[in-house]
Structure to design on (1162 residues):
């Protein structure tokens, strides 16, 4: 293609609301154009990237036996009422009314519609397994859309849904998808990790996120450099410490800590490591009657090492806390502890509370905690001697770098990632709610075992940029670059030789199936190079009169610091070789 | 592809709300699935057709120099308020509010958004001409959605918008698009006509509809079999009759016509041709002051031959009627004619009215019209002798078959069509409303000259079926068939020879780039043939043990009445030859 027949539009500056590098670079490179908050036009340059992402996804989904269809963007509310999501979902579900005042939603996903299709179409076990997917516009009315395509309101997602006759078959379908996702992300040419994710109420380990590694990522990814263990922070288990609890050495003592209401302040005041302190978090659970009235509340004290953070997902799975919990009110805290937050602890309680100790805290000796008296902490605290053993010992914290890997193969490391894909075993959650059944071998109706599988098609280019850029602009992997190759002729309007060589190379590459752009805009070399470095085309060939006299052109990969002279006769083969590699 | 890895779902019956053949066949062939009124899932079989339509459109749009982008489905109301369409458009524009109660629309087209892009991006005449297009989901909240994809609410449209610096250039851009449309519709393999259409207030002839010819089409298409004249009914001109008005022969006479309130009844009663009668249509126009109050109304009497119909578009262009008109009220009619409708005419008026005679009526002699007295008509009416010449003579009727062609090359014929494309010169309507300007050669800002160009991507398959079907099902043209070829093996599960031959042919055709499906579902031959005849795959190869013994298979085109024996060794070449033809 020639630039004059395309649309190249670059900007020196990004708008002030572009906070992250991918948003800034996509705006500057003319890939997207803002229409409203979280709503973007995919400009010609950006659309080419999106189409390449779509095509790779489509090829691998088809190869994995999934079948493409397209479900409507605007969906009647009835189906969403069958699963309860029409009422349960928050305002991020865009609800609309048509001219007849009937309720509709603009789809954020399509579980309801695809389950409705399945219950009509898949009537026998003979038709299973089946996997339907679509690559379709979605809408999610984010409270605070930002970061360009990273957290937009309108976006394109590939969503697939598998239907199986039993759990074993569903797990096999899940594994087929997980393998397809690996092929897809391999083809994108990005550094990524498939990490175990929490599968919520369904349980089991059948939930993985595909995270593109980037320092700017929103998510913390936990992995073991010595093994293939990887999980997101919600999921990664902190093992119980290996050794037994040390013997108590120090005496219990009430120590003045005036104005030191955090573990860090106390540790500094006392000149001890933060890891010898224990922090107290007070939660509450409510017992509700049929009329939705609170009939009884229980207060929980969670004890974590001063240098550790609570993991809400893990806490939410503990017996007694798994039906929902909240932070305790100030009144509840004063009622049970006789003290304001900052100096709380498990000793000298006014009223009994449920004490949950993190696995790490449970094996500590001679630790420090609040005295339940303002401006005082207890030091030399020991389980058994100074207070009863905790009611429950559990993993309730986020792992930290250096923790033992759950697979026993070394210690954990942490890096940042951007979630661009998710494979998830759904079980019968939707099929039961919608009475979606098939006739099994025994002739009896049975609900489908389902899985769902998403890829953020428009988010992926943003993640790719977060991972691959420098101070000059984007650096696309070959597979999803808007153009694989750009030919930059110097003085094409003045030199027939340059024009002829440029057009000949262009035609030769096109004939070889290479996605090449000839920049015939007539820009000065500096401006031309700056544009293509900003846009991030991976391979560049510069053709000038001077080189042509010696029969050479200049080749430069976007990551190269300088250009290499290559014989004009060899450049096409060189590029094709590089693209295949 | 193998059927077992795809999704084939056919139905014996169509739902009762499927009124037209394309709707019935698309439902029965499992191409679409209804989700709500006018909202359909494109099922795997139907999506393949849609994707082929999209691909042909995309290739030809790119070839014509248009550049693809994708504008949002959900668009902020602000831009729609700039052109006034947010308020002016009826309830077919789906208006929605986001979580912050801000107004949005679900796009039915994108003139506003693309004009907004142009005014930001196209700053100089050097960047013109430019044509942006998208293939994108649209929504139009039809009052009465019906006919499946023919008149749905959610649909896919290709919409293109050209931007030019002056009218000449805009006309050239228009012609480029009109030529691209001809290539596109040629490639679809459908019988179609490009017909001149009315271009509304903008004037000129720069509006053409692309109509797929089908007996069931909603639109009447006027054409001259001896020339390339073609227009839609709104646009087609009825020429003034060639000869002069004949001399008056009959005397004026008031004739009793009790209970005969229509021209047809009167002609029958009197035993004269319908074409000797004249019908009276009474319209009114209002003069409005600045406070939107009616300060004066004018009553118009339109006279048409009894066998002709009024053309509202033509009437709406007459001087005095071109700012909007309405049918007169009963009170206005009685006030001016002293009579109820059914016996109205231009003689014996109580108050003066503006008389507009159709060109045909203006040259009639000895005609018949209402007497402005219930149960009486006037016969032997003659212009000049019995009443003054009309205030205005104009073309205000629909043409009929046999009328002279406006190009003087014969007589007109009329057939039915389905509009699937439209090219339209917009002028500066949107650019002026939105102050979308570029800097012209003289350095001064100037509004863009625009054109818009649509193709109904999801409507096209329905139109193709209306044109190409028989009692057994759909007959797809090769270019947009879901599969070009289906291989039907007989007893594949019992015969290794059949299985091997079928798979080998499948693989050979796939390698040659042929879109082939191998039906490995194990259905009985009758059911298998019925499915593929319903679905409408154009080329079918049947492979059975009996034929294989003689080294032959059976080939049958969907339009053939019976199969032809072809040597197994030659079938692949035969199919490739047919597909190229």
């Amino acid at each position: 293609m020639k630039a004059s027949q395309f649309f190249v539009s670059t900007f020196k500056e990004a708008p002030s609301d572009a906070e992250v590098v991918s948003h800034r670079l996509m705006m500057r490179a003319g890939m997207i154009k803002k229409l409203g908050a979280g709503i973007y036009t995919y400009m010609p340059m950006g659309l080419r990237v999106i189409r390449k992402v779509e095509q790779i996804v489509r090829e691998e989904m088809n190869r994995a036996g999934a079948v493409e269809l397209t479900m409507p963007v605007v969906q009647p509310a009835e189906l969403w009422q069958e699963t309860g999501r029409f009422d349960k979902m928050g305002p991020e579900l865009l609800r609309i009314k048509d001219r007849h005042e009937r309720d509709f939603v603009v789809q954020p996903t399509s579980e309801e519609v695809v389950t409705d299709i399945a219950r009509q179409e898949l009537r026998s076990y003979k038709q299973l397994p089946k996997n339907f997917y679509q690559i379709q516009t979605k809408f999610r009315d984010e409270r605070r859309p930002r970061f360009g395509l990273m957290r937009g309101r309108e976006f394109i997602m590939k969503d697939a849904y598998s239907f199986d006759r039993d759990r074993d078959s569903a797990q096999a379908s899940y594994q087929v998808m997980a393998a397809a996702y690996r092929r897809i992300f391999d083809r994108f040419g990005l550094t990524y990790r498939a990490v175990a994710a929490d599968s919520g109420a369904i349980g089991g380990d059948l939930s993985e996120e595909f995270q593109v590694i980037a320092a700017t990522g929103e998510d913390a990814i936990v992995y073991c450099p010595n093994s293939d263990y990887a999980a997101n922070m919600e999921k990664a288990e902190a093992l119980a410490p290996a050794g037994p609890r040390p013997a108590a050495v120090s005496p219990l003592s009430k120590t003045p800590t005036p104005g030191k209401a955090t573990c860090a302040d106390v540790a500094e005041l006392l000149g001890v490591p933060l890891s010898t302190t224990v922090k107290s978090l007070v939660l509450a659970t409510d017992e509700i009657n049929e009329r939705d009235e609170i009939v009884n509340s229980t207060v929980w004290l969670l004890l974590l090492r001063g240098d550790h953070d609570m993991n809400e997902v893990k806490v939410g799975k503990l017996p007694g806390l798994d039906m929902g919990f909240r932070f305790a009110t100030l009144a509840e805290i004063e009622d049970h502890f006789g003290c304001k937050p900052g100096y709380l602890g498990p000793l000298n309680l006014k009223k009994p509370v449920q004490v949950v100790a993190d696995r790490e805290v449970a094996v500590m000796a001679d630790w420090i905690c609040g005295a339940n008296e303002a401006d005082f902490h207890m030091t030399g605290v020991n389980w058994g001697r100074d207070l009863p053993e905790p009611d429950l010992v559990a993993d309730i914290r986020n792992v930290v770098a250096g923790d033992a890997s759950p697979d026993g193969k070394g210690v954990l490391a942490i890096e940042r990632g951007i979630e661009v894909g998710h494979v998830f075993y759904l079980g019968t959650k939707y099929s039961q709610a919608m009475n979606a059944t098939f006739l099994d071998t025994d002739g009896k109706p049975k609900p489908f075992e389902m899985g769902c599988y998403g890829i953020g098609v428009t988010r992926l280019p943003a993640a790719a940029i977060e991972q691959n850029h420098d101070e000059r602009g984007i650096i696309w992997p070959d597979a999803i670059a808007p153009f694989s190759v750009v030919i930059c002729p110097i003085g094409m309007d003045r030199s027939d030789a340059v024009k002829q060589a440029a057009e000949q190379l262009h035609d030769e590459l096109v004939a070889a199936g290479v996605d090449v752009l000839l920049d015939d805009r007539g820009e000065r070399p500096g401006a031309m190079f700056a544009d293509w470095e900003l846009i991030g085309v991976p391979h560049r060939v510069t053709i000038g009169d001077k080189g042509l006299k010696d029969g050479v052109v200049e080749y430069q990969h976007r990551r190269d610091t300088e250009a290499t002279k290559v014989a004009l006769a060899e450049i096409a083969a060189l590029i094709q070789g590089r693209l295949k590699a």
Remarks:
- Residues 337 and 349 of chain B are 5 Å apart (CA to CA).
- Chain B has three domains: 3-237+414-465, 253-394, 483-580.
- The first helix of chain B runs from residue 21 to 28.
- Chain B touches chain A through 47 residues (CB under 8 Å).
